[in-house]
Design a protein that fits this description.
With 366 residues, this protein is of the alpha/beta class. It has twelve helices and 17 strands. The radius of gyration is 21 Å and the shape is globular. The structure holds ligand T4K.
């Protein structure tokens, strides 16, 4: 059987059936039903954050939080190109302009020493990504955002369950977006959330995801539709019960990769971050020696093992952004990473013997 880069975590079939059983009694399938409300409450507890607003996917969560801040159209948002398409697209689809900042060599998040030089009178926000679940330099970014009066919105799509010195990733900045897509450490099939402290945002975010409708005869705001449905929320309620065990199993996979690959000539692993409780969402490896990333990808594919080149190409290399200033040559570290990185398969049920097989294959070709 093929080994893919990840495999969705799922509860037992019976557990999910039991969770959705009462939907056949209520016939209430969406529009902020009981399961939606329960999941929201449980996530506020789990992530230890004042407010969680749920969405049908992470991308719309990000678009909605950008819209909620009512940033001036054309305003500049400092962000990373070393990310999934969604981050940059959300900025552009909200009528804002991405300004690409390079990333650092250690954890591949925004290089905070380069952020301030990109701030202009048009800058309205910073949108960093906790890429692979590794946390950005949150204190430096907080300081810069405060000093310059900028919104700080994290793309925390990969960072569910991550903590720094006991503080949940959901608590940093003005808001954080999480993805609950099938490929994530915690999934609701498709899904996402915005986490934040400001009570004033609750109504706005609720309006944005439900047409601005506040009652049968009351439409207060020009909203769209981005609601999480009850089947998604039910999957979330089940998966949340098993989260700790899932992360523990991922930790074992991560540890085995590190034990086998650390120090191998031409390979560079991302260092573990001090004080950070990780979620082991991805296992990125840089190929910097004789064995190229593309060859490593092919060698694994020949054995039916499908690693992924997350994140190649950089978003500032996308055709649709070729007219923006700040192409890949302006973000040289990110460019090099995108050419060297391969994310190896990692998921809770990945057999350690398969991890060994992947490592044997790579090590014998270095
Ligand atoms: N910001 C960042 C930094 C993100 O990485 C993402 C999403 C977002 C924002 C937006 O969040 P969402 O709107 O998606 O909630 C996948 C995911 O679709 C995407 O959610 C994720 N990032 C991105 C990094 O990866 P693809 O195009 O690589 O997915 P796909 O279909 O090739 O699946 C990858 C592997 O996952 C498959 O080889 C097998 C496994 N898989 C996939 C699906 C669909 C499963 O095990 N079960 C499944 O149902 O984008």
């Amino acid at each position: 059987m093929s080994i893919l880069v990840t495999r969705s975590s799922m509860p037992d079939f019976e557990e999910y059936c039991a969770e959705i059983r009462d939907l056949w009694d209520s016939h209430w399938l969406t529009n902020m039903g009981d399961k939606h409300r329960q999941l929201q409450r449980e996530l506020e507890e789990q992530l230890r954050v004042e407010h969680v607003t749920l969405y049908t996917n992470g991308h719309l969560a990000l678009e909605n939080i950008l819209a909620a801040f009512e940033l001036p159209q054309g305003g500049e948002v400092i962000t990373t190109p070393f990310t999934f398409a969604s981050t940059t697209h959300a900025i552009v689809r909200c009528g804002l302009t991405p300004v690409f900042c390079d990333v650092n060599e250690e954890d591949y998040t925004l290089d905070v020493s380069k952020v301030e030089s990109l701030i202009t009178e048009k800058t309205v926000a910073i949108l960093p990504v906790h890429v692979y679940g590794g946390l950005c330099d949150v204190s430096a970014l907080e300081r810069i955002a405060k000093e310059h009066g900028l919104k700080l919105i994290y793309d925390a799509a990969h960072a569910f369950g991550v903590e720094k010195d006991g503080i949940s990733a959901a608590c940093f900045g003005d808001a954080s977006m999480f993805s609950f897509h099938a490929t994530k450490v915690f999934n609701t099939i498709e899904g996402g959330a915005v986490c934040y402290h400001d009570d004033g945002l609750v109504q706005r975010l609720d309006d944005l995801k439900n047409f601005g409708i506040r009652g049968p005869e009351d439409c207060a705001y020009v909203g769209g539709n981005a609601k999480m449905n009850e089947f998604q929320a039910a999957m979330g309620l089940c998966n949340l019960r098993h989260l700790d065990r899932e992360i523990e199993k991922r930790r074992a996979v991560d540890a085995r990769y590190r034990q086998r690959l650390e120090g191998a000539p031409g390979l560079k692993l991302r260092a573990e971050q001090p004080g950070v409780k990780a979620n082991y969402a991805y296992f990125p490896v840089l190929f910097q020696g004789k064995l190229s990333r593309d060859r490593a990808y092919e060698l694994l594919a020949e054995q039916d093992i499908f690693a992924r080149k997350y994140f190649y190409p950089l978003t500032n290399a996308f055709d649709c952004y070729r007219d923006l200033p700040g192409g890949p040559e302006k973000t040289p570290v990110a460019l090099r990473l995108s050419q060297q990185v391969l994310t190896l398969p990692i998921y809770a049920d990945l057999d350690l013997q398969d991890v060994d097989r992947i490592c044997d294959n790579l090590l014998s070709n270095l």
